[in-house]
Amino acid sequence: MRLFMKKPYRDTFEINYIKNQSYCRVAHYSISASQNKTNQDYIAYADGGASLRQTRGNIWVLADGMSGGKAGRVAAELFVRQLIDGYTHLSPTISIASALGRAVDAANRSIHWLSRNDPNLAGMATVFCAIVMRGWEFYACYAGDVHCYRWRNRNITLLTVDHTIKAMIGNIVYRAAGMNDVLNTDFHKLDIEQDDIIILMSDGCYRYLKEREIREIMISASSLADAAEKMANSAIVNGSQDDVTIGLLEVLWLPSKTMSIFEHEFFSIPIGRPPNIGANIDGYHILEHIYDGYQSVLFRSFDEKSNTEKVLKFPKRQLNDDDAIRRTFATEDWVSSIVSSPWLVRTAHDGRCRSQVYTVMLSYKGQNLSMIIRSKTLTVREGLEIMKQLAKAVYALHKLNIIHRDIKPDNVFITDRGDVLLLFALVPGTIDQKSNLMLGTLAYMAPEIIAGAPGDSRSDVYSLGVTFYYMFSRWKPPIDAEGYRSLRRYRPDIPDWLDRVIKKMVSANPRDRYSDTLEVLYDIESQVEMFGLEGVQKKSKLIIREVVLLRVVVLLLIIIIFGSSTF
Question: Where is each Protein kinase domain found (predicted)?
């Protein structure tokens, strides 16, 4: 094959986020289809540096020129350079989506004009994929058939969709920069975590590589550069006669997500009003109303972009404080983006521009705990399973110094599979946050919250205890004028130990409660192990072993005594 004669382009480098802290490692490999032909691919990474890190971030682009000859290379390189220059010089107050849209539009119009007015560049165009990285946020903007993959836990996932039509002569691209004076691109937020690897490939590479081959190379390669070169060589060996370009970006470290970016977005858009059924909000078609609370309203919607159902949550203006509404919705979006737990509902916002204040959640089939309590009496076993999952959900928040402030059956969702999910309150807050607003629902508020204290993890323990009590008693209050009312008054089948656990959770004095829900979980599991669901103490295996050992010792002593007496 004499690959060395094609003079491939290689490059490997690291980008620092802060001093002595690597953000990502990047490897590029590009090789022309022929040593006598200009490589029509162009790949570039632009580091915004400290000045743009929190606003524009970094941008990484792979373009594959069309129309043959030098014109294709001109289209690819010119588009990438103009896109990067235009994007990085726009006002930092403009969102990533808007900035990319404007930069792509300007670069597209420039290439289209040249292709129409310069005979040497007639018909030139380019497909591309651009990745924007801002802190922990990753976005893709693309048109054509450049592929973007995610490599995570030895699995490869395609993140882009080709804009091509199958024809007798092969695939025909119907979206490309320079093809028309207006370019429609796909833009969406990427699910990227620390240690993931993002892969960009031109069609000269991926059309001649199966995902199985990519996976094998990624596993066996000694470095990013080694993986890129092996994939390029494999594509050529498999018959590729096109330019081959590969970019790999390994996410080495991600900064902690801060509130500032979320607040900036929510304070730059109107609060608006909850929509009507049938309305279309930013590509979400409102299907039905599913919850109407004092502070918020939830709708089931169809996302026209992903063809999936989502739940949209809109604020009501009962608080009469626009800043508080914006801040609390920003906090909710921030919390749901940084907390990773199977028992917490995570944000499903894909980065698109919002026309008003709302949050987006995944849609689940099931019902909230309030509806379940009304429909049936939960067994002890069923209730304990819900208790344990909720304790884990709340502790996931407490680990990050976040208190929920509004734990109640309405904010607990049980899926049809039996999974328990805790929904975020309208007004979550951090432990050191102070507010003049009365946060939460009065019936579930800890006494210190009602008295005006900011509260801490023990305040959530109280709310969780009231929720558990209501769950088993079916809405009987745990406290009256004389203090705690035993749960066994309404549910004789409840074990004494479970009644004691809930009593401790709803103690009036925070110092008498569990310090956090991890202690609650530990106590529940310990009591189940010791007493079981019926409340009868189990025989200790240790005691049984000690009795057996004692009998063996006595038997040995008898043998020794009687054995020695015979001599």
Answer: 284-531
Residue type, 524: I
Task: Determine the Cα–Cα distance for residues 518 and 162; give it in Å rounded to an integer.
Answer: 47
| pLDDT tens by residue, 127-176 | 999 999 988 889 999 999 999 999 998 999 999 999 999 887 778 999 99
Contact yes or no for 70/42 (Cβ under 8 A): no
The token duo for 64 is: 């594959």
Provide CB contacts within 8 A for 140, sequence distance 6+. 129, 130, 131, 132, 148, 159, 160, 186, 187, 188, 190
| 481, amino acid identity | A
Amino acid at 282: D
For Cα atoms 300, 375, 295, give the angle at the middle one, nearest 5 degrees: 40
Task: Find the largest Cα–Cα distance for the chain.
Answer: 122
Cβ–Cβ under 8 Å, residues 312 and 358: yes
Q: What is the mean pLDDT of residues 383-402?
A: 93
- Confidence band for 7, pLDDT divided at 50, 70 and 90: low
Nearest to 415 by CA among 375, 460, 384, 371: 371
Cα separations (Å) of 466 from 276, 278, 473? 35, 38, 10
CA 51 to mean position of chain CA atoms: 27
Spatial distance between the Cα atoms of 156 and 266, rounded to a whole number of angstroms:
34
CA distance readout (Å), 305 to 267, 308, 341: 25, 8, 26
Examine the pLDDT at 372 and tell me if it is beyond 90. yes
Residue 429 has pLDDT above 60, yes or no: no
Strands, E assignment, 429-495: 429-430, 479-480, 483-484
CA–CA separation, 142 and 146 (whole Å): 8
131 close to 43: Cβ distance less than 8 angstroms: no
CB atoms closer than 10 angstroms to residue 559: 10
3-class DSSP assignment, residue 434:
coil
Lowest mean pLDDT among 98-107, 203-212, 286-295, 357-366: 286-295
Query: What is the phi/psi pair of residue 68, to 5°?
Result: 80, 165
Structure token pair of residue 81: 């350079």
Residue 107 has pLDDT above 80, yes or no: yes
DSSP assignment of 98-146, as one string?
Answer: HHHHHHHHHHHHHHHHHHHH-GGGTT-EEEEEEEEEETTEEEEEEESS-
Output the CA–CA distances (angstroms, integers) from residue 327 to 41, 49, 137, in the order listed.
45, 29, 20
Length of the chain: 567
Q: Which helix (H) or strand (E) holds 65?
A: strand 58-66
Cα-based angle 48, 53, 54 (whole degrees, multiple of 5): 145
pLDDT of residue 334: 86
- Rounded CA-CA distance 520/471 in Å is 16
Nearest to 290 by CA among 241, 197, 361: 361
Q: Which residues of 507-534 are buried (b: 16+ CB within 10 A; e: fewer)?
A: beebeebbebbbbbbebbeebbeebeee
* Contact status, residue 84 vs residue 61, Cβ threshold 8 Å: yes
Helix spans in 175-271 (H): 203-206, 211-220, 224-237, 259-266
Spell out the residues 6+ positions from residue 239 whose beta carbon is closer than 8 angstroms to its own: 208
3-state secondary structure of 214: helix
Residue with tokens 């959640």: 361
SS3 of 46-61: ECCHHHHCCCCCEEEE
